[in-house]
Amino acid sequence: MGLNKMQMKKSMGCISQILRDAGLSIDIVGITAVAGLLSSEVLKDPKKSDQEISADEAFEFFDVDGNGDIQKGDIEVFLNLAGIQDIEEITEKAAELMDQVDSNQDGRVSRQEWRKSWSSVDSLRLFRDKVTDDGLKAEMVAKYGKCGPENIPLYAFGNKMSLYRLPSYPTNPDDRPGADCVFFGCPFDASSTYRMGARFGPAAVRRASQMTSFNYAPWIERDFSNMKIFDAGDAAATPFDILTAMNQVYLFAKRLWNSSKTVIGIGGDHALTWCLLRAARDFNNGDPVALVHLDAHLDTGEEYHGNKLSHGTALRRAMEDGCVDVEKSTHIGIHGSMGGADLMKEDEEKGWLTITLDDFVQKGPEEVAEIVKERIGDAPAIISFDVDVLEPGECPGIGFPEPGGMRCRELFSFLRALKGINVIGGEVCEFTPEYDSNEVTAHACAQGAYEIMCLALDNVEDPPE
C-alpha cells in the first residue's frame, strides 16, 4: 500500500491531538476505536472535497438518537459537540436550522428533507468538515453512544435493583420492545446550589420501591400486571460538564420515548426537568407540552449566581427551548420567601398560572386539580414533582427545604384528582437521601412516581389477554 512509518507517526499525532482537544484520551476511547481512526486517517483521500460528503453520511451523524429523524434536540447536541458553549446561541442556531430544513414544519427532518437541503442550505455548509472529523465522531460515541456514555459515574447503579421489582429494559435501543411505561434514574446533582447528594436519590427510591405492591391501583380500579412496564436503569450523566450531562440525559429520555408511550424520570436535581421536557417536546413532534409543576420555587430565573445552568433556572431554559406550553402550565405549591416580586410578575406576564401553597390549602387539592385540568384540556402533559413542595418536618430528605410545605396526603389527593388529563411522562427530583433520617421521603418519591404512572396509564387500553 506504500504506507511508511512517517505517515503512520504523523497520523497518530493528529489523532492524539484531536482526542486531547476533545478532552479524551486513548484510554477513554479504547484501542479498537483508535485503530479504526488511525486506519481512516492513513487511508483518507486528501483530494476529497467538502462537496463529496454525502447527505446520508451527514444525516447519520446528526441523527444522534438514531430514531430515523433529525429533531431540534439532535441539532442542539451536535452544536454543543462542535464547540458552541453558549446556551442561547445553541437554541437560536438549532431553531434556525430546523426552520430552514424542516420543510413541512412537523418537528422532524426526514432523510428526504435532509437530502434536499444538504447542498442548498448555506448554514449547513458550516458543518461539512465536522461530519468527517474522526475526533468528533469518537467524542460522539464516547459521550452520546446509543448504549449511553462510555464513562459511567461510580454512583450510577443502574437497574441492578430495579424500581418496583420491574423487569430491566435493554440497554441497547435496538433490542427494546414496545413499552407502555419506562422508568429511569438520573443520578445527577452538579447544578444544585445548597445541599448536595441528590445523585443518590434514584438508588434510595429503588430501595424504597421494593415495598410498593404496584400491580393494582384501587383509586382508579386499574390492574397493571399485564402492561409492559420497565426500569431502564440510570441516565449516566457526567458530573464534570453540566451542558454535556444535560445532553446525555435528554438523549437517554428521548431514546426511551422512541419505544415507550410514557417515560418517568427519578432524580437527581431539577436540571432533570429541562432534559425531560426537551425529549417530551420531540416526542410531541416539536410542539411544547403542558407542565404541572409542583414545587416550593418557580425555577424560572434567568441566572443563578451568574450561571444559566442550575436547578433554579431549569424551567427558563425549557421555556426558551420551546418545550413548555406556558398558557397551559401551572406552578403549584409555591411557598417561602423570594428575592423580589419581579420573577412572579414575569411568569404571570408570560402566561403562567401560579397557585401558591396558601391558595392550595384554601381551595383544597380537588378544586385546584379541576383548575389545572381545565387549563390543560387535552394537551399532552408532563408532571414535575420537586420534593421541596413537601413539608420538611414530614419528609426531611430535601435538597432546598422550605418549611410549611404540603403534606403527602394532600399531594396524592391532588394527583389522583387530575385523572383524565393526557399525561405522557413526568419526573421526581431534588430528593437528597442523606437527610432522610426516617426514609419517609424515599417512600414519598416512590409513591409519587407511581401516582404519575397511574395518571398516564389510565389513558392506555388494557392489553388483550
The strand line-up of the biggest sheet is 4-1-5-10-9-6-7-8
> Can you tell me the overall shape?
globular
Low-confidence segments: 41-51
Kindly state the number of beta strands. Answer: 10
Number of helices: 19
Helix content: 40-55%
Mean pLDDT: 87
Query: Would you tell me the structural class of the helices and strands?
Result: alpha/beta
Helix-strand topology string:
HHHHHHHHHHEHEEEHEHEHEHEHHEHEH
Question: What is the rounded distance between the termini?
Answer: 63 Å
Q: Using only CA atoms, what is the Rg?
A: 23 Å
Strand content: 5-15%
Please give the largest β-sheet.
Answer: 8 strands, parallel
Features:
465 residues, alpha/beta, 8-stranded parallel beta sheet, two-stranded antiparallel sheet, 19 helices, 10 strands
Verbal overview:
By secondary structure, this protein is α/β, with parallel strands linked by helices. Helix content is 42%, strand content 10%. It has helices spanning 5-21, 26-29, 31-43, 55-62, 72-81, 87-101, 111-118, 122-125, 128-131, 134-144, 201-209, 242-257, 271-283, 314-320, 342-350, 357-363, 365-376, 408-417, 440-457, and strands at residues 181-186, 216-217, 222-223, 229-234, 263-267, 290-294, 330-334, 353-356, 381-386, 423-429. Strands 4-1-5-10-9-6-7-8 form an eight-stranded parallel β-sheet, sandwiched between helices. A two-stranded antiparallel sheet has the order 2-3. The radius of gyration is 23 Å and the shape is globular. The termini are far apart.
Could you write a compact summary of the structure shown?
The protein has 465 residues and is α/β, with parallel strands linked by helices.
